[in-house]
Amino acid sequence: MRISSSAVSLTVDDVPASSKFLATHFGFTERMSADGFASLGRDDAAMDVIFLRRGLEILPEELRDRPACGTIVAFVVDDLAAEHERLQAEGAPITLPPREEPWGERLFMVTDPNGIVYELVEWATP
């Protein structure tokens, strides 16, 4: 098998709000969009992020009304402290302040208007 690209698809109530959040705070650009749909990407990201409006008929019936929940979109960054400072200055809601886990992961989290959680990660050197 060869995988040519990757994407995560998240079901939200307000597609434009999540799309704007990702573009404003993480530099993603809209690659495709339609009513109830937006696909965003970055040339240096390993995946695209797709937002689908909850209730769309293209979704399987059992998933149509479920919002994305419990999913964390993680971005590995080179300078976590600088990203935290930047996002704080931009007014992004920091929902988990910076911390370091015992296994060497430094992280913090922000949450978009639809409740999508983005975790920024930097690995501590041993």
CATH architectural name: Roll
Portion in helices? 10-25%
Relative strand content: 35-45%
Element string (H = helix, E = strand) = EHEEEEHEEE
Count of β-strands = 8
Low-confidence stretches: none
Distance between the termini: 34 Å
Mean pLDDT: 93
Number of domains: 1
Class from secondary-structure proportions: alpha/beta
Radius of gyration: 15 Å
**What is the fourth-level CATH superfamily?**
2,3-Dihydroxybiphenyl 1,2-Dioxygenase, domain 1
- Report the sheet with the most strands, covering strand number, pairing sense and barrel closure: 4 strands, mixed
CATH topology: 2,3-Dihydroxybiphenyl 1,2-Dioxygenase, domain 1
In CATH, what is the class? Alpha Beta
Strand order of the largest sheet: 1-4-3-2
Number of helices: 2
What would you call the shape?
A: globular
Characterization of the model:
The protein has 126 residues and is of the alpha/beta class. The protein has one domain: 2,3-Dihydroxybiphenyl 1,2-Dioxygenase, domain 1, CATH 3.10.180. It is built from two helices and eight strands, in the order E-H-E-E-E-E-H-E-E-E. It has helices at residues 15-26, 80-90, and strands spanning 7-12, 29-34, 37-41, 48-53, 72-76, 94-100, 105-111, 117-123. The chain has a four-stranded mixed beta sheet, with helices on one face. A four-stranded mixed beta sheet has the order 5-8-7-6, with helices on one face. A hairpin with a 6-residue loop joins strand 3 and strand 4. It is globular. It starts with 6 loop residues before the first strand and ends with a strand.
